[in-house]
């Protein structure tokens, strides 16, 4: 894609804006201490962006946004109070700090409350290449969206309608500071180009689409590539069939395979564990996956979607194995959840950062050949996952695989199993990684699940 399609040469004032946010955070911390707080932490952010949408060659929406916010949490011993505002005027900041302090005075002691351990806070802040702003230009963005949609509509005569195309460009500045003396500033950008199309007529219509996303605008697919891919995926969905209910292998395409990892991370996260609402309680040291399987967390990955030198509490992050040789190495903990469990923070306040799942197989077509006969899932519907038991049941659509070849479209089926058993029955992870997510994972083949259809 032409990097000059959006203006990337405009003056970059992000450093000055971060300095202003830092100064505001320091003032709030000082005021909290003057009001008697024993500890305090402040988060400040400024976000801006442009989003345009077109449909059938006409402009539908053009939206420019600029948001900012401040949030402060104060501690009076182990009593905690929080307040936030989007108004950076001096009077509003003063009132926000005072409100947080007033709330804290009326809350109960919480033995797990408090800032992160000072010794765990980050002191090194490498450049992780997450800042690639593109100054919003509505006319140029609309031109790209229109070209994307037109390429999709022209790609195949069976494309009968459009749900539109869109371009977005966003930047975010943030500062976290606390009364231990920690100050961390970050800036990031993200851009996307998408297209959704409709093929067929009447009851036989099918909808599908595609999108490209990247931290740097120049890394996006061309609008023609996105439009043509959206058309191909939509046409492939025509004349779907159901399946007979039974047991069969299931191959998850990369864009849906990452949801399997999302369920896993939720189950090993501190909040689920100390509330005892996880099917993976007391699982550190247990073999949860096949012995070749590994998941690495890479918070220091250059140009990663969730790269950061520190978590939401200022705790230093580090590249580490979450799963090694199929064995869970650690949980995902903030300082609060770690204290509730009698453990130490893993630098995951705010979530995980850039998971990378080890591959042991080729691309989607090669994995379909390896599977032989089964179901390729390209879309999941519903939220049928029980976090306490691990029971899994979701609506699905995709394609039947016969004799290693991807065949006709399939919809109106349900796939079911238990996540603990599903993880153990993973036989292959592909190298066809979907780069549009912080979870870097290829296709995933599970050797047996229950597939329920209408036939």
TrEMBL record:
GO-annotated molecular function: metallopeptidase activity
GO biological process: proteolysis
Pfam families in alphabetical order: PmbA_TldD_1st (PF01523), PmbA_TldD_2nd (PF19290), PmbA_TldD_3rd (PF19289)
Superkingdom assignment: Bacteria
One Gene Ontology CC term in the entry: cytosol
Matching Gene3D superfamilies: PmbA/TldD superfamily
Metalloprotease TldD/E C-terminal domain boundaries: 245-453
SUPFAM superfamilies: Putative modulator of DNA gyrase, PmbA/TldD (SSF111283)
UniProt domain Metalloprotease TldD/E central: residue ranges: 132-238
Residues annotated as domain Metalloprotease TldD/E N-terminal: 40-104
Family classification: Belongs to the peptidase U62 family.
Protein name: Peptidase PmbA
The organism's taxonomic lineage, starting at the top: Bacteria, Pseudomonadati, Pseudomonadota, Gammaproteobacteria, Lysobacterales
Gene: pmbA
């Amino acid at each position: 894609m032409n990097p000059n399609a959006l203006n990337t040469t405009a003056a970059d004032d992000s450093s000055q804006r971060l300095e202003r946010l830092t100064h505001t955070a320091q003032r709030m911390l000082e005021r909290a201490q003057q009001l008697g707080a024993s500890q305090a932490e402040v988060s400040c952010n400024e976000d801006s962006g442009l989003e345009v949408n077109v449909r059938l060659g006409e402009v539908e929406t053009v939206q420019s946004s600029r948001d900012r916010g401040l949030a402060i949490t104060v501690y009076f011993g182990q009593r905690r109070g929080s307040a936030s505002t989007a108004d950076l005027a001096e009077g509003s900041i003063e009132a926000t700090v005072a409100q947080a302090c007033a709330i804290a005075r009326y809350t109960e002691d919480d033995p797990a409350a408090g800032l992160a351990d000072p010794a765990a806070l980050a002191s090194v802040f490498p450049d992780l290449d997450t800042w690639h702003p593109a100054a919003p230009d509505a006319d140029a963005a609309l031109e790209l969206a229109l070209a994307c949609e037109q390429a999709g509509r022209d790609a195949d005569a069976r494309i009968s309608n459009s749900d539109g195309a869109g371009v977005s460009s966003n930047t975010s500045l943030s500062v976290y500071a606390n009364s231990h003396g920690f100050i961390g500033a970050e800036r990031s950008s993200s851009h996307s180009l998408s297209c959704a199309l409709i093929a067929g007529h009447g009851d036989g219509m099918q909808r599908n689409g595609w999108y490209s996303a990247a931290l740097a605008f120049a890394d996006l697919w061309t609008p023609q590539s996105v439009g043509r891919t959206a058309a191909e995926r939509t046409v492939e969905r025509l004349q779907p069939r159901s399946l007979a209910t039974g047991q069969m292998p299931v191959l998850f395409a990369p864009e849906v395979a990452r949801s399997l990892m999302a369920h896993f991370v939720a189950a090993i996260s501190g909040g689920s564990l100390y509330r005892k609402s996880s099917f993976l309680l007391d699982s550190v040291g247990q073999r949860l996956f096949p012995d070749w399987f590994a998941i690495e967390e890479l918070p220091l990955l250059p140009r990663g979607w969730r790269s950061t030198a520190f978590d939401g509490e200022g705790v230093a992050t580090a590249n580490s194995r979450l799963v090694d040789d199929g064995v869970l190495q650690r949980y995902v903990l903030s300082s609060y959840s770690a204290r509730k469990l009698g453990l130490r923070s893993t630098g995951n306040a705010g979530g995980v950062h850039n998971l990378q799942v080890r591959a042991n197989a080729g691309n989607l077509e090669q994995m379909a050949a390896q599977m032989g006969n089964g179901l390729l899932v390209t879309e999941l519907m519903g939220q049928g996952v029980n976090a306490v038991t691990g029971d899994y049941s979701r609506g699905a659509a995709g394609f039947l695989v016969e004799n290693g070849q991807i065949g006709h479209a399939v919809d109106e089926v349900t796939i079911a199993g238990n996540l603990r058993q599903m993880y153990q029955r993973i036989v292959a992870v592909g190298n066809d990684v979907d780069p549009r997510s912080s979870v870097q994972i290829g296709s995933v083949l599970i050797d047996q699940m229950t597939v329920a259809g209408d036939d």
